[in-house]
C-alpha cells in the first residue's frame, strides 16, 4: 500500500515548457503547415487595431480623470441631495374623504364654499373610484410602462431618452421622467432645467416611493395632472369634457384624457385644432396599450371605432360663481400655502379646495354691498348708452377699498355687472393700466415734501419746458388745456393737475429717488428704468387699482405702508391654524408730509379737477369727514382714474375699456365716471362714521406768507400778494420773522430842498 501511495504522490518539481502537459496536448492536435506568415496582416485591420489601441488609451485616461474627480463629483452629488426640500403631502394622503372648505367675511358669514359643483376646475377623487376604468393602464402605457416595477426612476427609460435625443438632433421624442418624477414636479412646482434639480428630483422620487404605495402615487398624479383650461385632475376633466364622473369613463375616454397632460394647450379639447391633436394622441395611447397587452385586440378596435361625445360648454350658474373678493382671497391663501410648505401652486390649490379649510377674510359686507350696488348701476357707467351702441365692447371698471386703519382690503369689484364665471379677469387686481396724473402725489409731491424741497406755498413756473431728454428741442410736457399760467404755488398746481410743474418737481427730487419712494409703497418699477414721463403716470407696464389703493393708503394711514391683505387666519378641519396673516409694514413718509399732502389733495375735490363731480364726504348727520383725492387721465383718454381717501377708507377706481379688439376712446360724457363711481361708494359707506378730519401734528403751524415765499409784511398785504398756508416748525422752507419779504418793502424817500418826500 505504501508503494502505491508513493507512486501517486504529486511531484512539485518545476517542469520545462516543452515538457509540460499543455505542450504535449498542442503537439497532439496541431497538424500540417502554416498557411500564412504571422506578419502578413490586412491593412484595414491594422488601422482598426491601431484605432482600438488609441481608444483604449483614451478610455484609461478618462477613467483616471473620473477617479481623480470622484471626490469632487460625489461631493456635488451629496450637496444636491442634502439641499433637496422634503415633499409635503400629508393633507392629501391622510384621508380619502373630500371635505368642503369655507370662506368667511369679517363678520363670520360664509361667502364661498370650495368643493364639488362650486369649483369644477379641480375635484379630488380617490383611486379606488377609478379602479374599474382603464385610466391607470392608459396613463402607465403612455407615460411610464414600468411604473409598477421601478423604484422611482427608470434607468432604462432615461438611457433610451438620451439615445433618442442623440438620434434626433438633441431632442428626445419622449421624456425620461417616470410618473413618480412627474408627481414630484407636480407637488413641488419646480421644473427648472438644471443638473442639480434633476438630481434632487431623482432623490425625491425615490423617497416618495419609500413613503407611499404605487396606488397612492398614482392617485396624486391623477389629481394633480394638468388637463387644460384650468382643469386639474381627471375628475375635473371628465366632468368638463364628457359631462360624467371619472368612474364612468370608457376605454376611449380614458385614452383621450391620458394623452392631455403631455401638452394641455396643444391638446386642448375646447379648440377645434386641439381636439384633433388630442384624438390623434388618443390613438397612439390605445396602440401602446394594445402593444403592452393592457387591452385585447377586440377592445383596441372597439375603442378606435368609439365616437367620443363631448359636453357642450355652458356658462356657470350664478350660485356657482365666486365673488371677485373671495376669489382673490382664495388665491392669496393658495400662494401662501405653497410658499410656506414649498409645494406647487397646483397642489396648494387642491389642498385648499378639498381639505376642509376655514378661511377668514377681511371683507366688510356692508362696504362690499355698496360696491356691488355701484357696479350694477348702469347710470354710473354709461351716461348716454346710445353713444356706445356701435362700440365693440362696453365700458368697464375696477375698484378696491382698503381700511385705512388696518391696511386690510375690505371690498373690491373686478368688472361691471353680474360676475358670470370663475377665474375670469379681475380688473381690480389684474388690470395693469396707465395711471395718468393720479400718480403725481406718490411719485412727485409727497417725496418732495418729505425731502424738504417744497411746501404747499412754494412757487414754480408753469411755462414751456423741455424735459424730454431724447427730444430736447420739443416742448414737453404739455398741460391738458395746452396753456400756461406762469408762477403758481404747489397747492394750486396739485389742484389743477399741472403736468409742467409735476415733472419739474420730479426732476428736483431725482428720478431714482422718486422711483425708490414709489417702490416703498408697493409699486416697484425698477424694471422699467427711469424717465421723466413717469412723473405724470406713463410707465412701461401699468398699475392695478389694488396697487394704487395700497399706495394711497400710505398717505391715509399717516405715512406707513402696509401690504394690502385679504385674510386674517386659516384653520384646517381640526381647528388648527394653517396660516395667520402678518402683513409687512414700514414707514415711508412723516406724519407732517401726509398732513400737507392730504390738505392739498382736499383742494382737488373742493376747487380742483374733481370739484364738479365729487364733494367732501359727510356722515349721515351731514358732518364733515376729511376727504382727499386725485384724478388721472391718459393723454388719449383711454384710462380714467380717481384715487382718494378719508381717515377711514382708501379707494382707487379705474374706468375705461378692456380694448381687446381695438383701442376705444372714452366718450366725452363718460370721462368723469371714475370720480362718480368713487364718490357714490365712499359717500355711502361713511354714514355711521364720526366726524373727523386729517390729524394735524403739533409740528404743523399755519402762517401768512408772501407769494415770494418769505414771511409776509404789511407791504405784502398792501400788494395783495399774501396767502395763508401750513408749514413744518423749524424746517428750512418755513418763513421766519428774521427773513421778511425782500420784494415788498417801504418806498424809498427822496430829498428835495431838504424836505424828505416819499417817491
The major β-sheet equals: 5 strands, mixed
Q: Helix fraction?
A: 25-40%
**Large-scale geometry:** elongated
Structural class: alpha+beta
Total number of strands: 18
* Percentage of residues in strands: 5-15%
- Terminal residue distance: 164 Å
Radius of gyration: 39 Å
Low-confidence segments, ≥5 residues, pLDDT <50? 1-15, 20-40, 71-84, 754-759
Query: Mean pLDDT across all residues, rounded?
Result: 85
Strand ordering within the main sheet: 2-1-3-9-10
The total count of helices amounts to 25
How would you describe this structure to a colleague?
The protein is of the alpha+beta class. A 5-stranded mixed β-sheet has the order 2-1-3-9-10. Strands 5-4-14-13-12 form a 5-stranded antiparallel β-sheet, with helices on both faces. The model is unreliable at 1-15, 20-40, 71-84 and 754-759 (pLDDT under 50).
Write the topology of this structure.
Blueprint: H1 2-7, H2 21-29, H3 43-82, H4 90-93, E1 101-104, E2 110-114, H5 135-143, H6 155-167, H7 179-188, H8 195-211, H9 214-224, H10 234-242, H11 251-258, H12 272-291, H13 297-304, H14 324-341, H15 345-354, E3 358-361, H16 365-374, H17 378-381, E4 396-403, E5 409-413, H18 440-450, E6 459-462, E7 486-489, H19 490-496, H20 499-509, H21 511-520, H22 545-556, E8 560-562, E9 567-571, E10 577-580, E11 585-587, H23 591-606, E12 628-633, E13 639-645, E14 649-656, H24 673-685, E15 700-706, H25 714-718, E16 722-728, E17 749-752, E18 755-758
Helix pairs in contact: 5-11, 5-12, 7-8, 7-9, 11-12, 12-13, 14-15, 16-24, 18-20, 18-21, 18-23, 19-23, 20-21
Amino acid at each position: 500500500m505504501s508503494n502505491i501511495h508513493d507512486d501517486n504522490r504529486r511531484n512539485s518539481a518545476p517542469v520545462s515548457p516543452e515538457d509540460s502537459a499543455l505542450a504535449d496536448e498542442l503537439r497532439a492536435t496541431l497538424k500540417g503547415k502554416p498557411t500564412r506568415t504571422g506578419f502578413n496582416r490586412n491593412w484595414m485591420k491594422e488601422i482598426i487595431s491601431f484605432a482600438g489601441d488609441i481608444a483604449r488609451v483614451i478610455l484609461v485616461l478618462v477613467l483616471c480623470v473620473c477617479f481623480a474627480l470622484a471626490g469632487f463629483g460625489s461631493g456635488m452629488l451629496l450637496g444636491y441631495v442634502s439641499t433637496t426640500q422634503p415633499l409635503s403631502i400629508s393633507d392629501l394622503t391622510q384621508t380619502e374623504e373630500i371635505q368642503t372648505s369655507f370662506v368667511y367675511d369679517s363678520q363670520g358669514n360664509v361667502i364661498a364654499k370650495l368643493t364639488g359643483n362650486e369649483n369644477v376646475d379641480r375635484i379630488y377623487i380617490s383611486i379606488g373610484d377609478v379602479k374599474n376604468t382603464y385610466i391607470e393602464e392608459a396613463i402607465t402605457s403612455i407615460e411610464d410602462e414600468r411604473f409598477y416595477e421601478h423604484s422611482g426612476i427608470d434607468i432604462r427609460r432615461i438611457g433610451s431618452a438620451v439615445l433618442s435625443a442623440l438620434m434626433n438632433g438633441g431632442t428626445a421624442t419622449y421624456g425620461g421622467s417616470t410618473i413618480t418624477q412627474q408627481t414630484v414636479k407636480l407637488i413641488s412646482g419646480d421644473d427648472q432645467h438644471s443638473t442639480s434639480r434633476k438630481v434632487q428630483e431623482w432623490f425625491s422620487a425615490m423617497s416618495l416611493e419609500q413613503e407611499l404605495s404605487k396606488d397612492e402615487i398614482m392617485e396624486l398624479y391623477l389629481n394633480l395632472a394638468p388637463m387644460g383650461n384650468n382643469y386639474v385632475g381627471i375628475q375635473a376633466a371628465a366632468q368638463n369634457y364628457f359631462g360624467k364622473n371619472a368612474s364612468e369613463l370608457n376605454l376611449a375616454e380614458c385614452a383621450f384624457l391620458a394623452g392631455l397632460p403631455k401638452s394641455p394647450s396643444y391638446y386642448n379639447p375646447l379648440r377645434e385644432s386641439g381636439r384633433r391633436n388630442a384624438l390623434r394622441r388618443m390613438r397612439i395611447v390605445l396602440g401602446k396599450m394594445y402593444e403592452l397587452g393592457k387591452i385585447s385586440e377586440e377592445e383596441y378596435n372597439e375603442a378606435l371605432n368609439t365616437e367620443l361625445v363631448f359636453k357642450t360648454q355652458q356658462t356657470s350658474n350664478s350660485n356657482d360663481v365666486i365673488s371677485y373678493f373671495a376669489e382673490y382671497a382664495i388665491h392669496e391663501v393658495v400662494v401662501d400655502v405653497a410658499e410656506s410648505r414649498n409645494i406647487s401652486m397646483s397642489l396648494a390649490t387642491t389642498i385648499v379646495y378639498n381639505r376642509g379649510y376655514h378661511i377668514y377674510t377681511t371683507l366688510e359686507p356692508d362696504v362690499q354691498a355698496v360696491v356691488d350696488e355701484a357696479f350694477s348701476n348702469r347710470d354710473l357707467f354709461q351716461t348716454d348708452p346710445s353713444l356706445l351702441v356701435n362700440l365693440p365692447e362696453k365700458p368697464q371698471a375696477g375698484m378696491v377699498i382698503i381700511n385705512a386703519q388696518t391696511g386690510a382690503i375690505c371690498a373690491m369689484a373686478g368688472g361691471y355687472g353680474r360676475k358670470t364665471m370663475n377665474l375670469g379677469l379681475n380688473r381690480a387686481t389684474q388690470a395693469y393700466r396707465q395711471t395718468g396724473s393720479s400718480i403725481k402725489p406718490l411719485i412727485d409731491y409727497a417725496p418732495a415734501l418729505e425731502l424738504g424741497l417744497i411746501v404747499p406755498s412754494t412757487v414754480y413756473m408753469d411755462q414751456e419746458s423741455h424735459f424730454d431728454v431724447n427730444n430736447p428741442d420739443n416742448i414737453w410736457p404739455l398741460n391738458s388745456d395746452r396753456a400756461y399760467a406762469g408762477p403758481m404755488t404747489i397747492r394750486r398746481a396739485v389742484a389743477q393737475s399741472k403736468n409742467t410743474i409735476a415733472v419739474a418737481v420730479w426732476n428736483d427730487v431725482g428720478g431714482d429717488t422718486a422711483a425708490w419712494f414709489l417702490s416703498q409703497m408697493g409699486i416697484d418699477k425698477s424694471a422699467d428704468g427711469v424717465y421723466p414721463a413717469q412723473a405724470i403716470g406713463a410707465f412701461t407696464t401699468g398699475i392695478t387699482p389694488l396697487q394704487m389703493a395700497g399706495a394711497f393708503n400710505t398717505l391715509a394711514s399717516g405715512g406707513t405702508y402696509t401690504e394690502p391683505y385679504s385674510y386674517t387666519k386659516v384653520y384646517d378641519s381640526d381647528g388648527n391654524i394653517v396660516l395667520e396673516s402678518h402683513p409687512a409694514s414700514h414707514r415711508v413718509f412723516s406724519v407732517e408730509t401726509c398732513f400737507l399732502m392730504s390738505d392739498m389733495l382736499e383742494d382737488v375735490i373742493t376747487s380742483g379737477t374733481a370739484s364738479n363731480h365729487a364733494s367732501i364726504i359727510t356722515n349721515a348727520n351731514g358732518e364733515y369727514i376729511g376727504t382727499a383725492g386725485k384724478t388721472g387721465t391718459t393723454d388719449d383718454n383711454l384710462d380714467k382714474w380717481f384715487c382718494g381717501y378719508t381717515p377711514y377708507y382708501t379707494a382707487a377706481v379705474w374706468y375705461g375699456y378692456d380694448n381687446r379688439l381695438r383701442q376705444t376712446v372714452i366718450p366725452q360724457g363718460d370721462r368723469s365716471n371714475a370720480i362718480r363711481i368713487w364718490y357714490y361708494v365712499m359717500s355711502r359707506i361713511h354714514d355711521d362714521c364720526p366726524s373727523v378730519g386729517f390729524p394735524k401734528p403739533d409740528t404743523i403751524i399755519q402762517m401768512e406768507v408772501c407769494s415770494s415765499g418769505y414771511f409776509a409784511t404789511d407791504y405784502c398785504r398792501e400788494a395783495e400778494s399774501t396767502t395763508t398756508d401750513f408749514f413744518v416748525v423749524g424746517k428750512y422752507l418755513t418763513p421766519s420773522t428774521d427773513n421778511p419779504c425782500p420784494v415788498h418793502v417801504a418806498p424809498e424817500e427822496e430829498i428835495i430842498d431838504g424836505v424828505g418826500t416819499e417817491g
